[in-house]
Amino acid sequence: MAIKDFKTNKPIKAHATSKYTTYRVTEPAGLMEFLMKKMAGISRTRVKALLTNRVVLVDNTIQTLYNYPLQPGMCVQISREKHKHEFHHPMLKILYEDAYIIVVEKKEGLLSVATERQKERTAQHILNEYVKRIHKGNRIYVVHRLDRETSGIMMYAKDEKTQHTLRDNWHDLVRDRRYVAIVQGEMEQDEGTVCSWLTDRKLYVSSSPVDDGGKYSVTHYHTIKRANGFSLLELQLETGRKNQIRVHMQSLGHPVVGDERYGCEMNPLERLALHAFKLCFYHPVTHEWMEFETPYPTPFKTLMLRR
């Protein structure tokens, strides 16, 4: 028999089943410790699986760090709708996410941030749409960028305070940014450092060996292999300027393969042969040491096979 509202005499609709199992935090604790206590009998392996599957939220934000510090007043939620929080996109892969940052690997051809001409086909927009699915008030904040045609690892902040912390303390927090590139010709040196002053001219970036008002820029390189008229390099940035590696490689007479803008006439991979494969930093909030690394792109390896 249906239950009726005594004022309208109409049947009362049952409320939809809650989408989350919710726990309130009353004392400081690590996330795994908290969940094992609240979910009596659950194993550590199962808790790790919940975190990996991105179904644990802290204050409406997905949390994957098992030792994430909880404070009284926080709300921990276990989603009953696993697929709601899964992320699949052909141009973007999430490597790590917590309440403060999100680390991704983007493919070449995707802009890092919105421009006046392109607002939707960007990593920033894709991630904004993703975090808003979890809570409409969520958004992504830009910290640094990769060129559209450069693939690899990059990081975004998930709140304005974390964004400012990262930007204001970038060189203290981010300790290792490395790229792999294939350049035209065989490098004369096994390793070296390129220093110059770079100036953004909008259509291109110019380089000067003396201070002409540009930004001082430093790139370290190590030659891994020479083959087939190309060189495979590992590059480490001491500074992070627009087009820095591309301009510095051009200044050595070895432009990045596929980089028509900076003097390369060859494009055997049909893409810019530049990939940000490593990012290491101290977490801006928890201060934990974090390392992310992806393999060299397979086409890079194939091009360097001796024929």
Can you walk through the features of this model?
The chain has 307 residues and is of the alpha+beta class. Helices cover 18% and strands 33% of the residues. The protein contains seven helices and 17 strands. Strands 7, 8, 9, 10, 11, 12, 13, 14, 15, 16 and 17 form an eleven-stranded mixed beta sheet that branches. Strands 1-6-3-4 form a four-stranded antiparallel beta sheet, with no helix packed on it. The chain has a two-stranded antiparallel ribbon with strand order 2-5. The chain is elongated and about 65 Å long. The termini are far apart. The relative contact order is 0.12. The N terminus is likely disordered.
Quickly describe the structure:
With 307 residues, this protein is of the alpha+beta class. The chain is 18% helix and 33% strand.
List keywords for this structure.
307 residues, eleven-stranded mixed sheet, four-stranded antiparallel sheet, 7 helices, 18% helix, disordered N terminus
